[in-house]
Amino acid sequence: MVDWATLPKDLLDVISKCLESSFDLVQFRSVCSSWRSAAEPKRPLPSHRLPILPDNGVSLFPDSAVGFRLSQRSILVVKPHEPHSEADQFGWLVKVEENLIGPRTVTLRDPLSDRRHSLPEHFPRSLDMSKFKVRELGREFKLHYFNLFGDVVETLFLEKAVVKYLDSDASEYRFVLLTIHVSGKVAVFRSWDRAWTVINDMPSPYDDVFLYDGRFFAVDNNGRTVVVDFTSSKLTLAANPVFGGDKKFLIESCGEMLLVDMYLSVEEVDGDPGSAEENFEHHVIYMNERTVKFKVFKFVERETSWVEVTELGDKMLFLGDDCTFSASASEILPHCGGSSVVFNGNVFNEDSSLGTMQGRDSGVFDFSTGKIEPLYKRPDYTKLFWPPPPWITSLENAEDYPGETSSQS
């Protein structure tokens, strides 16, 4: 039998450098003292500052006192090492953002949105993560506006961003960022140039950007998909259009890139005038976009096409506001999930206290039946989200040294 503690230090160093996730590296280093000494902890990613995105062309004033701050978040699935009951077999999904300034703390957020959570009264202020199985399912990058006075606006820039980190030297990380400009065009930022470039090639506005197999991809609202060369700012066709749906998402699952096509239906919905005066005579009508179905396609690069998928099997696809990720139902939702799409969007809910319209909420699309339900009507799925399960909040999982690793709302 192999004594894992005696593996050569050089081999352990090579393995540890292949672990992109800081959470994977923490668990790697916690195996034993020899593994810990062989693997250097990752340097925290700097809180990058980027200039303002230009109206068109190339950005000016790269050293301006206003701009964007780039932050990184990780979507994690957390499970106990040794489940003691059937309920312990369910994973818990959470988005974490590490504070890079001051004490080492993290902010907990909803995995599908930007919503922050207030911690339950008995939630440990510090968690021993070695007592859990923790796996990173995806990453999310956010651009926050800042100005000369240090003000940070959380929601000024709402488009999704993806980042590729290149080789780093002793002083800083080199990276490339891809996002969607307000015009619907693709915009690229290279850290060594400290300037934005907006790429004018745009038959239709782009819906999503994605990093897959080390390359940047962008898909427009017709499904036309391109590879973005960040060195030349050139676009190359990767897949021909997929017509039909209203919003396209790119996602990776089991090593394959998938396109998820969301179909929307526009409906007239009775509204409540709310603060209007009592003699308000006009009947208020709102136009409500409702998610009605999804189609899923697999990327076939050699054919430059998307091929429709008729069955997802064990896969669960998650579509967030600024990120997409996938998971195996057998891992996080045994005997319940699989072949489904969990998403943020407008979900029709007749039981809502708002009347006939629930508004923006989370929903579950069952791929086998074609049925969409609000998340709250699927108690099996709600176990994946906030609030945390009892085995997380147990004092047995608290750190002996508060402050080393903590969580805050």
Automatic annotation (TrEMBL):
SMART domains: FBOX. InterPro entries: F-box-like_dom_sf, F-box_dom, KIB1-4_b-propeller, SCF_F-box_domain. It comes from the Eukaryota. SUPFAM superfamilies: F-box domain (SSF81383). Residues 7-48 form the F-box domain. Gene3D superfamilies: 1.20.1280.50. This is F-box domain-containing protein. It comes from Microthlaspi erraticum.
